[in-house]
Amino acid sequence: MKQKIFEVPGIPDECFDRGNLPMTKEEVRCITISKLRLSQDSIVYDVGAGTGTVSIEAGLIVQKGKVYSIEKTEEGCELIQKNTRKFRLHNIEVIKGEAPEVLKPLPAPHRVFIGGSGGRLKEILKVCHQKLRKNGIIVINCITIETLTTGVQVLKEKGYSVEIVNIIVSKGEKAGKVTMMKSLNPVFIISARKGGINND
């Protein structure tokens, strides 16, 4: 069944096929897309794409650009392709493999989103820094303090202008006849712009 095309970020979670993989929830995804500052012709990497929710949101915006959706699991790649067809997008290329190796032959990006790094964030950031265009933006979603610390440290060492936002979302759930607020896991969003005297 073809999915309705949305014109603003924050597509409802239930609109995606997700299988057994974790996904970036709609409220966090909305802020993530905002931090990427996408243009219609942006070239985007989605590293550790999972089910492809961020790729889909980005693909709807960069209609004259392209999204490279990098995912190492077979299930994830199949879900991304399924979601891509559902939203009738033709500007998303699914790449099965592990970053940073699969990034090296790709065109230079304007924007990079890292949703999963498999413990190789430093290596991934090194390659992304080398390939990212001037004034390009890297956004990293982190659920652990260690990932947050590593990301901020590496980006600052390379001269990026770094911003950190902590997102804590609670959603109402029915509990009998009443509604209770249930918190989702906190997410740290790092957004960093390339540019400056130390960006070598």
Automatic annotation (TrEMBL):
<keyword id="KW-0489">Methyltransferase</keyword>
<dbReference type="InterPro" id="IPR025714">
    <property type="entry name" value="Methyltranfer_dom"/>
</dbReference>
<dbReference type="GO" id="GO:0009236">
    <property type="term" value="P:cobalamin biosynthetic process"/>
</dbReference>
<keyword id="KW-0169">Cobalamin biosynthesis</keyword>
<dbReference type="InterPro" id="IPR023475">
    <property type="entry name" value="CbiT"/>
</dbReference>
<dbReference type="Pfam" id="PF13847">
    <property type="entry name" value="Methyltransf_31"/>
</dbReference>
<keyword id="KW-0949">S-adenosyl-L-methionine</keyword>
<comment type="pathway">
    <text>Cofactor biosynthesis; adenosylcobalamin biosynthesis.</text>
</comment>
<dbReference type="GO" id="GO:0032259">
    <property type="term" value="P:methylation"/>
</dbReference>
<dbReference type="GO" id="GO:0008276">
    <property type="term" value="F:protein methyltransferase activity"/>
</dbReference>
<feature type="domain" description="Methyltransferase">
    <location>
        <begin position="41"/>
        <end position="103"/>
    </location>
</feature>
<dbReference type="InterPro" id="IPR050714">
    <property type="entry name" value="Cobalamin_biosynth_MTase"/>
</dbReference>
<dbReference type="InterPro" id="IPR029063">
    <property type="entry name" value="SAM-dependent_MTases_sf"/>
</dbReference>
<keyword id="KW-0808">Transferase</keyword>
<dbReference type="InterPro" id="IPR014008">
    <property type="entry name" value="Cbl_synth_MTase_CbiT"/>
</dbReference>
<protein>
    <submittedName>
        <fullName>Cobalamin biosynthesis bifunctional protein CbiET</fullName>
    </submittedName>
</protein>
